[in-house]
Amino acid sequence: MKRAILAAASLLLLTACVSNDATATPEAPPGINEAGTLPPGEPDVNGDGKVVIGVLSPGDINDNGYYESFVVKAEAFATKQGWQVIKRGSVPVAEALNAARALCQQKVDMVAIGAAELKDAIPASTEAVCQKTAWYVPSSANVAQTPEITLSSDDPNQSMLVAGYAAGLLMREKGTTKAGFVSGPEADFTVVAATAFKAGIREIIPEATLVTTYAGDFNDSGKAREAANAQISQGVGALYPYLGGATDAATALANEKKLITLTPGTDRCDSTNPAFDVSVLFDPGDYFEAALTLFAAGQLRMGVTKVWQLGVDPYPTVKLCHGTPEQNAKLAAFIADIGAKKIDPAAEVKKLGN
């Protein structure tokens, strides 16, 4: 589940540009950034007569969430185009560089990194083995732009502030002032997420408190359940499992206690086992699909960054799964004000998150 933190192009709704004809090239979205460089022959960058997308993920690509969405969207798009996808999940950070080299040796036309934790793979983009490849990387603050890669970025302060705001609306109705946040390692991006989430709740409930637990692993269901149980014993009324493969285990416990629950990146409002009350959407698969649309049109440039804006672009965004008309209207207005720059998320987090 990470953002890459959770992460190409400036854009229409992401599937709108895909032709129903599996052999057709999708029309590129308007407003292409003319900066950067276009790899010759894109999408068949290596000129071997076929298009192969290589995907590396640090997490479980069957996690029913953040990591899986990246691969699922890639495979769906590739199938329509007659492309091939080579994928590898649960790549250790220490093996990122060699894993990227191995993909290039398999003649992929694009190396796509599923999350920024695998940033150590990026130096391969300048090596001879990867000379004829495009690179897609979800960005975070510690990923530097280089001429060989395209970065996709969003601001976690935006989506996590709004996630907290949405939770606050439901918490106020339920009469609870304490929420829980369970995540993996205590890293910069998880701390930022927890802080912004707390600030968002306090937009609605100024006296709200947040119990934060860093379980050390995004995918260990046992650790997630232990952390969730500890927070439940402390009386939280909402639980945010900011996790990967362990999301459902923690959410199932929250469901048993009828706690308010949120998704870590994808839309699961239709899920019933487990069930969610808020979908927080920073789905890396949606961002990646937009990049693939440009790639298919021969217009995905390297050396540039697409920054996705809440309230402006289709994603990131937040929705209440079963909100009342009044709650939905308040949430929509809050999102619109961020998009119009009437609300500065960073300033709100600084003011309310500590």
TrEMBL record:
- Does the UniProt entry include the keyword Signal? yes
Q: How does it sit in the membrane?
A: Lipid-anchor
Q: Which residues form the signal peptide?
A: 1-24
Segments forming domain ABC transporter substrate-binding protein PnrA-like: 50-312
- Keyword vocabulary terms for this entry: Cell membrane, Lipoprotein, Membrane, Signal
Q: Which residues cross the membrane?
A: none
The chain's coiled-coil residues are none
Q: Where is this region: Disordered?
A: 25-44
| Protein location | Cell membrane
UniProt cross-references to InterPro entries, sorted A to Z: BMP_lipoprotein (IPR050957), Peripla_BP_I (IPR028082), PnrA-like (IPR003760)
What PANTHER family does this protein map onto? Answer: ABC TRANSPORTER GUANOSINE-BINDING PROTEIN NUPN, TRANSCRIPTIONAL ACTIVATOR PROTEIN MED
- Family as reported in the entry's similarity comment: Belongs to the BMP lipoprotein family.
The protein, known as = ABC transporter substrate-binding protein PnrA-like domain-containing protein
